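User: Show me an example of a complex going from sequences to structure tokens.

Assistant: Sure. Here are the input components:
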Amino acid sequence: RKEVEQDPGPFNVPEGATVAFNCTYSNSASQSFFWYRQDCRKEPKLLMSVYSSGNEDGRFTAQLNRASQYISLLIRDSKLSDSATYLCVVNIPKPAGGTSYGKLTFGQGTILTVHP
Amino acid sequence: SQTIHQWPATLVQPVGSPLSLECTVEGTSNPNLYWYRQAAGRGLQLLFYSVGIGQISSEVPQNLSASRPQDRQFILSSKKLLLSDSGFYLCAWSEWGGRGTPLHFGNGTRLTVT
């Protein structure tokens, strides 16, 4: 099983639609979760962190389900400018006894296209 | 505020030639530094990370190396490039402390090995 797994899509939605992406992770000890956005041929940019209680930033809502080990991103009222690849990022802890906290692991990304 | 600079933006190199990509961070001290590679249509692969000067961890075996000669400078090198080294190289930093703080990326270098 992959450490971080996303549905690659693509998701094609009309403007104004609501779309949701899920991302599953394999390590139950993971503590930090993020969503990034990557435009074509550009660097990934932090969209939002994901907190245990869920959090919202404008049209974007992120949630964490520890029991089922997944995080989600909900985009309401989609805009053309939301078209991008959305990357799920999870901190994968090192085994006990190591000196490092672990590393941030990226999912393969979910492609979203919003059309008029 | 913190900024990260990465150069060059684009590079075309012949097979067998050397490589040096540089990344610097401003506005923070003792950052964690990273080099990622993204092959065309693929996900991000962590190549190296560093938690301090001279401290480099390699994630995957390859013909690349990394160095951190100064606190906020991270260099990716190769003595002889392979065709398979083509890709989008991204430098990133995160806050020292290592509790899974988010990464902040530079603009990236698009490398084509011919």
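The lines above are the inputs; the final block is the predicted structure for all two components together. Chain B touches chain A through 23 residues (CB under 8 Å).
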